[in-house]
Amino acid sequence: MALRIGLTGGIGSGKSMVSRIFELMGVPVYDADDAAKRLMNRDEELKKAIKENFGEEIYKEGRLDRKLLASIVFNDPRKLELLNSLVHPATIRDAESWVEKQSAPYIIKEAAIMFESGVNKMMDYVVGVSAPEELRIERVMKRDGVSRKEVLRRMQRQMDEDKKMNLCDFFLVNDEKQLLIPQVLELHQKLLKLSAFSET
Question: Do residue 95 and residue 113 come from a single domain?
Answer without folding.
Answer: no
